């Protein structure tokens, strides 16, 4: 294993570590009403790059918390019409499956009714909240937010994962998973078949 945490890029150990993370995500669907989850909600006005930073951060948080916490994602899409931003900019963000091939993602809209049975008790926290960031820096997220489901709203796509990896306790937990930050970003940024087809057309 390389220094810090995460196996070497492209190594068999790295692939196995990512496979274990993907299996954790799929296994969560076998007990959606009792498992522990982080729900990441993204500000619909964020661009794709900021969304990726937020998703990577939430993945790191789940990986560092324990062996069972899984990530559920709410990725706002613009549909057929572009979105007008308060600052005057205009953007068009497609749905996640049209853009990226992250098969391990659990979309909030696809979660079964059993997942929502205790929705009224879910705490809601913004990723810029100082108390939330302090819990990450202390490696104490599970104690600070002991609920079955915690909703994290990403205001601007800040990389709050830096507070996770900067915590000695969380860093040790991440090292045990073997998942590297590079592998995580590659997994998130894997282009969908639709995007690959468009790229091939442009190159042809």
Could you describe the 3D structure shown?
The protein is an alpha/beta fold and 204 residues long. The chain has nine helices and seven strands. The protein has a five-stranded parallel β-sheet with strand order 5-2-1-7-6. α2 links the parallel β1 (37-42) and β2. α2 packs across α8 (181-188). The longest helix has 18 residues, at 48-65. The radius of gyration is 17 Å and the shape is globular. The model has no long low-confidence stretch (mean pLDDT 89).
Task: Describe the protein's topology.
Layout: H1 12-28, E1 37-42, H2 48-65, E2 70-74, E3 83-84, E4 90-91, H3 96-99, E5 106-107, E6 124-126, H4 130-137, H5 141-144, E7 149-154, H6 161-165, H7 168-177, H8 181-188, H9 193-203
Parallel strand pairs: 1-2, 1-7, 2-5, 6-7
Antiparallel strand pairs: 3-4
Radius of gyration: 17 Å
Approximately how much helix is present in the residues? 40-55%
Order of helices and strands: HEHEEEHEEHHEHHHH
Overall pLDDT metric: 89
Structural class: alpha/beta
List keywords for this structure.
204 residues; alpha/beta; 5-stranded parallel beta sheet; 7 strands
Summary?
With 204 residues, the chain is α/β, with parallel strands linked by helices. It has helices at residues 12-28, 48-65, 96-99, 130-137, 141-144, 161-165, 168-177, 181-188, 193-203; strands at 37-42, 70-74, 83-84, 90-91, 106-107, 124-126, 149-154.
